[in-house]
């Protein structure tokens, strides 16, 4: 067996610095230690069962995912507590979900009575138990009920439904996570918290216990509010970080990068072999690691253009992008090239890539 140094990896390549990744996982667990909150990290960031197991082994109670297909990947990898933090309403998917609940503790969100009826019917047919959270809209303005009365009605229906267990509430405030203004994030979290406290109290005053309140995220995990109403923290991006989250001044470091090769160099300009097909720029162009004075001026499908006024870069040099959106970038790749101290330690398949159904 021979050693492969990072610079020998063919590009473009999605790199993970294992030391930084592991430190980020430790930092998050250390923050939550001693509180009533437990980490349920989001799979959609890394889509890697290996990393999910690292998070579980460090103390996470289970894993959150966005899609049923991701949950199937996690269950096949031995993850025993999975939350689908989304609505699953397609009849064929509900059947898959109920069947999957026979092999893992599976939770899902609902915001309408039709989904509850369909979930119950499927669970009865499969002989499984599905745990259900009522989703409350706390500002995302997409899914979720708007009032405490609606939340109570769904909680009652779940409680009475065969094959289902009412597990609590989901209140995800993702619209707050990327705001660089900490004061605005604090105000938004307080408003969301007030909505959840009211709904929880109303449901419990009607004799139904609200065990879990799941939500939060990387950008607001350290803003729990005065009452710490959330019991599960769905943070995901903290393991990788990106340029957008870096603006918030969080304690985590960037473990994810895209290594590229300079394939053309002329005065003031460098061209790389890494473009849009390997790097998402939803939140802006990538930064260049260890070269703060350089900027990526454009990404086409297969190329990146770098403004290099002082000609820092050379033909065939390897450089690394720090993406503006780590989750969407990871989903563009088949593998992580995991390094430690500049040495390739493993090539990790991104098993959940493309599992959007």
Summed up:
The chain has 357 residues and is α/β, with parallel strands linked by helices. It has helices at residues 18-32, 49-58, 68-76, 91-100, 113-126, 148-160, 182-205, 243-246, 326-330, and strands at 13-17, 38-39, 63-65, 81-87, 105-110, 130-135, 164-171, 212-215, 232-233, 256-266, 268-272, 287-288, 295-299, 304-308, 318-322, 335-340, 343-349.
Provide an overview of this structure.
- This protein is an alpha/beta fold.
- The protein has 2 domains: 6-11 and 251-349, Lyase, Ornithine Decarboxylase, Chain A, domain 1, CATH 2.40.37; 35-239, Alpha-Beta Barrel (TIM Barrel), CATH 3.20.20.10.
- The protein contains 9 helices and 17 strands.
- Strands 1, 10, 11, 12, 13, 14, 15, 16 and 17 form a 9-stranded mixed sheet that branches. It has an 8-stranded parallel sheet with strand order 2-9-8-7-6-5-4-3.
- Helix 6 crosses helix 7 (182-205).
- The longest helix has 24 residues, at 182-205.
- The relative contact order is 0.16.
Q: In CATH terms, what is the architecture of the largest domain?
A: Alpha-Beta Barrel
The helical percent reads 25-40%
The fraction of residues in strands falls at 15-25%
Can you tell me the residue ranges where pLDDT is under 50 for at least 5 consecutive residues?
none
Number of E-state strands: 17
- CATH homology-level superfamily of the largest domain: Alanine racemase
**Number of helical stretches of at least 4 residues:** 9
H/E element string? Answer: EHEHEHEHEHEHEHEEHEEEEEEHEE
Please report the distance between the alpha carbons of the first and last residues.
Answer: 40 Å
- What do we call the CATH topology of the largest domain? TIM Barrel
Mean pLDDT: 96
Give the overall shape: elongated
The structural domain count equals: 2
What composes the largest sheet? Answer: 9 strands, mixed
CATH class of the largest domain: Alpha Beta
Secondary structure class reads alpha/beta
- Cα-atom Rg, whole angstroms? 22 Å
